[in-house]
């Protein structure tokens, strides 16, 4: 049974709504990104070409630049004709600010061949970042991922992205899917200061032989944004609407009011939130 009891001097009707100082919620500490592609195209046994390439960036300083790699091969047995085509790609775009991390990662593979040729392609992209959360914060995270492969050709695709605390191992976001699947996650909550990891990869593969053609794609997009802990509705300002919304959730016993994230909603959560509310931003 939950009882609402007043905390003397600690339950302000209005938070200190001074302009929300754009505190530095996060500090990146380490990161790498890489994209790669492999292609093999064999044209009726006459011409056989293959190639692979990769690009990699080290250090989160480059994360605000897109990273892209494409590979394509189409051998021709004369000046105008080919029996095979293959191409693969990996692309990444991302941005990091003091309160937000956004990333989109994609891999594609395409293969096409006539009866005696082969069109083989892979596309891959890997994303890795560690960052420090500098203060108790409210967060809003969204993640979407798809993996798809054309039926009727040998191939596959996978898509994985997750964010987790390096202290507790608790995932903040986790999406892991394979062939012909998709998933979407929207979540809000609170996180305590500490180190976090954001990792993900995508891969796509097609091996088209004996008159087949196929496409494999793999993609994820995620966005995590941090707010002052009292900004319950995560709209960028702290005011009484946040307090009312929190208390409604708390009174309903909703896990949306689990401010200390221990899986139980009790008076500690109310105290935690109202102290943060009283402190402003
Ligand atoms: Ca708000
Ligand atoms: Ca709790």
From TrEMBL:
Domain of life: Bacteria
Signal peptide residue numbers: 1-21
InterPro entries on file: Dockerin_dom_GC-type
Keyword presence, Signal: yes
Keyword field contains Glycoprotein: no
Feature: compositional bias, Low complexity: 86-99
Record keywords, A-Z: Signal
Basic and acidic residues composition bias: residue spans: 70-84
Stretches the record annotates as Disordered: 70-99
Name assigned to this protein: EF-hand domain-containing protein
Organism: Corallococcus exercitus
Taxonomic classification: Bacteria, Pseudomonadati, Myxococcota, Myxococcia, Myxococcales
């Amino acid at each position: 049974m939950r009882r609402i009891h007043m905390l003397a001097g600690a339950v302000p009707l209005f938070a200190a709504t001074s302009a929300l100082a754009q505190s530095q919620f996060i500090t990146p500490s380490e990161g790498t990104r890489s994209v790669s592609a492999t292609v093999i195209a064999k044209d009726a046994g006459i011409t056989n070409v293959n190639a692979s390439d990769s690009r990699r960036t080290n250090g989160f300083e480059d994360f605000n630049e897109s990273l892209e790699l494409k590979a394509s091969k189409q051998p021709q047995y004369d000046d105008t004709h080919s029996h095979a085509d293959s191409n693969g790609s990996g692309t990444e775009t991302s941005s990091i600010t003091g309160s937000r991390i956004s990333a989109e990662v994609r891999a594609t593979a395409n293969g096409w061949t006539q009866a005696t040729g082969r069109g083989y392609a892979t596309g891959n992209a890997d994303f890795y970042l560690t960052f420090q959360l500098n203060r108790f914060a409210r967060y809003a995270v969204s993640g979407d991922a798809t993996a798809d492969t054309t039926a009727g050709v040998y191939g596959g695709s996978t898509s994985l992205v997750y964010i987790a605390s390096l202290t507790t191992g608790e995932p903040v976001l986790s999406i892991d899917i394979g062939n012909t699947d998709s998933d979407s996650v929207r979540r809000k909550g609170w996180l305590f200061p500490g180190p976090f990891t954001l990792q993900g990869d995508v891969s796509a593969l097609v091996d088209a032989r004996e008159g087949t053609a196929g496409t494999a794609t793999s993609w994820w997009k995620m966005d995590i944004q941090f707010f002052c802990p009292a900004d319950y509705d995560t709209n960028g300002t702290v005011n009484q609407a946040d307090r009312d919304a929190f208390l409604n959730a708390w009174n309903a016993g909703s896990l949306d009011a689990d401010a200390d994230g221990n899986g139980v909603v009790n008076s500690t959560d109310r105290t935690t939130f109202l102290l943060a509310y009283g402190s402003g931003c």
